[in-house]
């Protein structure tokens, strides 16, 4: 189990960006609200790539 929600937050951020068309900053905030912490830098790097 993932008590912090870190991985779930990362996946939700990436889904928001790639599938829902959300802007990178907004997608990152969605991830943070879902518990994204330690993986934030990796998610930011992925959000900087073209869709």
Write a brief caption for the model.
With 51 residues, the protein is mainly alpha-helical. Helices cover 61% and strands 0% of the residues. The model has no long low-confidence stretch (mean pLDDT 95).
Q: How would you characterize the overall build of this protein?
A:
- The structure is a single chain.
- The chain is built from three helices and no strands.
- The protein has helices at 6-18, 24-33, 40-47.
- By secondary structure, it is mainly α.
- It has one domain (6-47).
- The relative contact order is 0.26.
- The model has no long low-confidence stretch (mean pLDDT 95).
What is the element layout, followed by pairings?
Blueprint: H1 6-18, H2 24-33, H3 40-47
InterPro entries: Prot-tyrosine_phosphatase-like (IPR029021)
Q: Any descriptors?
A:
single chain, 51 residues, mainly alpha, 3 helices, 61% helix
Proportion of residues in β-strands: under 5%
Query: Mean pLDDT across all residues, rounded?
Result: 95
State the oligomer.
single chain
Q: SS-based structural class?
A: mainly alpha
Count of beta strands = 0
How many helices in DSSP terms? 3
How many separate domains make up the residues?
1
Distance between the termini: 30 Å
Largest sheet: none
In N-to-C order, the SSE pattern is HHH
Low-confidence parts lasting 5 or more residues at pLDDT below 50? Answer: none
What is Rg?
10 Å
In helices, the fraction of residues equals: 55-70%
The outline comes out as globular
InterPro entries: Prot-tyrosine_phosphatase-like (IPR029021)
């Amino acid at each position: 189990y993932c008590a912090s929600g870190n991985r779930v937050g990362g996946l939700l951020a990436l889904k928001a960006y790639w599938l829902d068309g959300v802007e990178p900053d907004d997608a990152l905030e969605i991830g943070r609200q879902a518990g994204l912490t330690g993986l934030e830098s990796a998610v930011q790097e992925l959000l900087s790539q073209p869709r």
